[in-house]
Amino acid sequence: TLRLSRREMPHASSPSSSPRPLRLARLLLPFGLLLLVSLLVLHGRPPGTRPGQSGTDPAALFLSLSPGANASIAADLLTLTSGPHLAGTPGAAGVAAHVLSRLRAAGLRTLTREYAPLLSYRAHASLALLAADRSLLAHLSTDEPADPGRRVVRPYHAYAPSGAAVAEAVFVNLGREEDLAALDRLGVSLRGRVAVAVRGGGYRGGVVARAAGRGAVAVLIAGRADGGVERGTVLLGGPGDPLTPGWAAADGAERLGFDHEAVRRRFPTIPSMPVSADTASAIVRSLGGPALPAEWRAGLGLEGHAGGVGPGPTLVNFTYQEDRKMATIKDIFAVIKGREEPDRYVILGNHRDAWTYGAVDPNSGTAALLDVARRLGIMLRSGWTPRRTIILCSWDAEEFGMVLFSRSGQLNGSKRTLEIFNPKL
């Protein structure tokens, strides 16, 4: 069994992006389509044919449908990214409807499944910098600098618990074990303090957990000076809905209680949220304490700053309120039944939900998936059928911790699954 696995935990997207991912996407798109062509050659060639036979080779037929593909993919990508579509919100419904209509337009048999996992949203957040006597120095922004009109969901960490803190801050660089060890050598403790980190220290949930383990009362994770604010999940213990570990969060499904030990250990114990580099810089520039290591300054654009890592003398006043609820999400499938081994599956899947617009992550892959569906539909109408069943999948709520991907996970572990391709570029 060959499986191409997804990453352990999801990355988040932000309105800010660089040309580099776009160039990478353009380079990887042909490669992804060629992988599918190989799949078709291996599993879809009619009996008695060989590669290179004119008129019968499915790979040649697939490639012959390339003209117009760029326009088709571009049109789908424009539609998919026309507005924010975070899972469980009204904007997600339009994207799901578009994917479903395009799969049906290709002539493929479609299935939809709705689930109600536990999702997490921002209800309220505030941040201020105080003097040692608790007088107000400045209100600090908790918004995305690139989104002054608040068109997209405001920055937050999914599954961060509600909480409040008025405490001294400590700058922890990337929040890695080596960074915390460096603070130990400087004689700086996190106990009872707000940890301020720069994104880049691995999974953000791990950064929060490490700070909590050192006694921190809250964590702020800044985007880098040259980028935006990164939304994302801080769920612990792997992917999947915390209340239905290993089974689908379908209507009427059994759910674990919030007091169950398996559920409690999935959630961080202290509040956290992502902030802009400007917000984090305002805090760090106010700190005293041991001198800031030179190699820690670049992440927030603090070159030349001669301040310290903290703690204090200023205080951070941070409040976060989470809105945690069961939300409806939708999984979409298109199934092409195999002619010889219909109970063995080749799966091509991608998620479609995004923290903001999702142009690169994930909908570059979704647009490519829809073009593959278009081509397979044409091939079916020409008389071609695959040897084994092909399933095209569009998952929801991946950004919350691969919630829907894990719901379809029984296919991943099945001996009937031959190959899994994820075309997210």
Automatic annotation (TrEMBL):
Chain intervals with Basic and acidic residues compositional bias: 1-10
Keyword set includes DNA-binding: no
InterPro entries associated with the record: PA_dom_sf (IPR046450), Peptidase_M28 (IPR007484), Peptidase_M28B (IPR039373)
Pfam families assigned to the protein according to its UniProt record, in alphabetical order: Peptidase_M28
Record's signal peptide: none
Domain of life: Eukaryota
Molecular-function GO term, any one: carboxypeptidase activity
Domain Peptidase M28: 332-402
Skewed-composition ranges (Low complexity): 11-20
Keywords, comma-separated and alphabetical: Glycoprotein
Region described as Disordered: 1-20
Membership in a protein family: Belongs to the peptidase M28 family. M28B subfamily.
Protein name as annotated: Peptidase M28 domain-containing protein
